[in-house]
Amino acid sequence: MAVLIEKVSFLLSRFRWIQTYYHNHHLDLALPGCLLSDAHGTVLGYIEELRLHQGRLHLRGWALVPRLAIRLGETQIWRTPQDEREDVALVIGCDPHVGFRASLPFDEGLLLLELDTAEGLLTIYHEMGVAEAKRRAKWGLRWRFWRDTLPLVPMILYGLWSGNANLPRRVKAALRLGLAESALSLNAAFLTSGDGSDVTPASPKFVTLIMPIYNAFDLLPEALDRVMAHTDVPFRLIVIDDASPDERVRPWLREWVGRQPPEACIDLIENAENLGFIGSVNRGFDLVQAGMNHGPVVLLNSDAMVPADWASRLVSPLADPAIATATPLSNDAEIFNVPVICVRSALQSGQADKIDAALRARITPQFPRSAAPTGVGFCMALQREWLMRLGGLDPAFGRGYGEEVDWCRRAAAQGGRHVAVTNLFVEHRGGASFGSEKMALVKKNNAIIAARYPRYDQLVQDFIREDPLITARMIATFAWADSLPEIQELPVYIGHSMGGGAENYLQDRIRKDKVSVVVRLGGACRCRLEVETPQGRLVANTNDLDLVVRLLAPITKRRIIYSCAVGDSDLSELPELLRRLSTGAALDILLHDYLPLSPSYTLLDHDGVYRGVPEPETTDPAHTYRCPDGTIMSLKAWRSAWDPVITLADRVQVFSEASAEIVVAAYPKVRARIVVTPHTLLQPILRLDPLGGDRIVIGVLGAIGPQKGALVLDALSKMLAGRADMGLVLIGRIAPGYTLANDTVVHGTYAIEDIGHLAARYGVTHWLIPSVWPETFSYTVHECLATELPTLAFDLGAQGDAVRIAPNGILLPWSTGHQDPAQMAQQIIDLLRKSPVTG
């Protein structure tokens, strides 16, 4: 009965933990914004979006100040409003570069904002109402938890009954308790200084290596030869044959030991009967304790392939007496895995040594020693003093698996720390000794760990979520990708954080790549580095572009592909960033907008009118750029900064003939390197039969901002208000600051695959593309054309190219003399009144 009560109590504690974990992970609160105004009531800005999600507070807004501080609890960050906000500029007549975004760890208390005004710092306190919002969200989260959990009950009961070791992982996956990727940050402290000032720790005078052997005959020659050739510290090797049933093992080991030089310090122990991994290791520990030589002890599996000069690096953290164990990065070492944490990767011949060489060259010997919840026993250095204090491995774990976790948790209970050796990579061929028995051993021993250390799993999940090794993991992943023989080029995309067509295109390309890297600019942090691999995705943030260059520069196969960087906090630095990233590498420039031609990447003048490609000498303020330090960059200076990058590019890819001509007008010498490659639709679109009847319903698709024709749509909506013969439907949304008539239908967010269904629901008879800038390519116009309904667009840019050749396309005349939104709206109405509904 006592055993049953204990088991039930344990299960209840696990249930409560996962319920709490679920609530914390899925809590997503939209909090009230905040007006930023001074004591006289003058509006200086607005916090428009305030969101609490997975322990971080995310902000988005605008401010008419050079910079502002955001403080919550002990954390304070400064932001310089630089994001382009045409909507704000249109409404209040200010410079459009007033937007900002930020993210910081959540803490209880008031949100403090300090605005750097001409009269000094203006302090604003904002009560976010988190407690009340959490109270309201609590009931919804409880309902969602039971909604998501109840269907899992059969799986959980069966898993408990069968002792399935993968049950916790399956439950977490089903409850969507994954990694909060956006919380990870890169740490420059991992990198070598590059000036030779890194101090290499003194090597220990002696180490003892313990290698238990059970079968795995085919791996033994390479594993042992590597130990002899690559161990750079005086060592004693204790080889323990655990009564391997493979009759080749013992004779070969005897012969191998006999071939070693006389000065080699090698002990071959032959178990009379199989003791299992733990019994064999403990025999080795007994010899260590009885020996005269002091120094670290290294557990080494017979399927661990050590690289050159490995031992001194592995044991170097043990110079700190508080560190009990040290484990290298590997392809199969759970939380120390590369490329993706807790995902095993098979390596090809030679890859491991190349990865290790990269880590050794690029990670400083003084790398940060972040505490891990455990070490991993395939290649783990143990502090001799901790071994003497705690004794050997617990025989309760049978033949092995989980025993090192138990030892490490016992050490942690007494203040011992466990660290990763991030400048060392050791290949682990994985489970060769135990073969098919591994899963049974894992199930049994995981249950022991869970019973002894109920918080261990949470510690592991916290480590995964926070991943203090992400910088080293990135470096190792780049080396892994660079050493893949099947990869000829590794694409490194420069992207933005604003979504839209360019992002859809980028994601489509990424899906076709085996491995790819995205340098994403303009988010809450300056840069978000994303790596896509077959094993999964790595994501980390940084505000340090120099660190990004240092991380990517050693990739020999990299091809830099500029996709779009609109939204970055300092676009004046972008040409130099591209130049640095492409030094020694190929460079492609993809033009999803005209940023290399002008800071006004839509080429619209300050009044929102397109008047052709601006001349470098123009004084129109839309085509100048205000740097974060307040200096103004003229269009001539802008083009001068971009010209070397355009010249350096192997190819400049555009997506329409109209776009090609616009680029050549600014950079004539690029003509020979321009490649015109129109996009294709990312998903099939439902084709529609034109509706009969006399009523015309104009459908507008997408997110409509100033350059997309928001003023035209605004005027058209008001003109059509109350009309029986014509109506207007927006399948999407319009930017803040624009008002549509009450009878204009605004559907809101949509999925591409729903376009045809929504058009049929609202009775759309014609599509309108109201965009007033020469688009480089318009997915929207092609999606509308694909429905086979008549589609109207102005005769400029890629949208004009598309409708001109489409059988259901209708061109609207365009000239700089017809830019009044009301006139343009009337032109649309007049044309449709003269045309049949079917177009």
CATH architecture of the largest domain: Alpha-Beta Complex
Instruction: State the helical fraction.
Output: 25-40%
- Counting DSSP E segments of at least 2 residues, the number of strands comes to 35
Mean pLDDT over all positions: 89
Largest sheet: 8 strands, mixed
| Overall 3D form | elongated
Structural notes for this entry:
The protein is of the alpha/beta class and 839 residues long. The protein has 4 domains: 33-128, Immunoglobulin-like (Sandwich); 200-471, Alpha-Beta Complex (Spore Coat Polysaccharide Biosynthesis Protein SpsA, Chain A), CATH 3.90.550; 486-676, Rossmann fold (3-Layer(aba) Sandwich); 696-834, 3-Layer(aba) Sandwich (Rossmann fold). It contains 25 helices and 35 strands. The strands form 7 sheets. It has an 8-stranded mixed sheet with strand order 23-22-21-20-24-25-28-29, with helices on both faces. The protein has a 7-stranded mixed sheet with strand order 13-12-11-14-17-16-18, sandwiched between helices. Strands 1, 2, 3, 4, 7 and 8 form a 6-stranded antiparallel sheet that branches. Helix 1 (2-26) packs across helix 3 (130-149), helix 10 (351-362) packs across helix 15 and helix 21 packs across helix 25 (821-834). It is elongated and about 100 Å long. The relative contact order is 0.07.
Give descriptors for this structure.
Spore Coat Polysaccharide Biosynthesis Protein SpsA, Chain A, 8-stranded mixed β-sheet, Immunoglobulin-like, 7-stranded mixed β-sheet, 35 strands, alpha/beta
Summarize the structure.
This protein has 839 residues and is an alpha/beta fold.
